[in-house]
Design brief:
alpha+beta, single chain, 3 helices, four-stranded mixed beta sheet, Ribosomal Protein S8, Chain: A, domain 1
Length: about 150
Amino acid sequence: MPQPCECPDCGNPRALMHDCQHCGSQAIPILLGDTIEFNLKRGSPSAEEALDRLTHYLWRASDVGVKAILLIHGYGASGQGGKIKWAVHEALENNYFSDRVDEFYFGEDVAYGSDSYHVLLRRRPSLKTHLKLFKEGNAGMSVLLLGNNT
């Protein structure tokens, strides 16, 4: 997957949350689009660690002007949803991230042609290509619309 940002100092592709691997720059990266993916389950963190990561990621994403995040939290192997998924859902439903997240849509509610699908396309037309991941709904992902960038 291509990097969502580039380094303002050397112009090379760069991840949002890390220093530039090419020149070591710590400057805030330049965003290449208004929508990014964030894989919260990478590295198999605990639910608490995942929420901490998400908190930091939301602050950084907001700082660079991200408007929408496709959050990959996984579904869990149990068939009932994993701990990270339920922790993220609970945090969103209880407005834990309300200082950064204006709206959120759980993947299972964003199937092609659903009301949520059409609402997301009206609010953020740039999501159209990303919403292909939700053809029949995707319980392992959520869509977050950040509030500081209208």
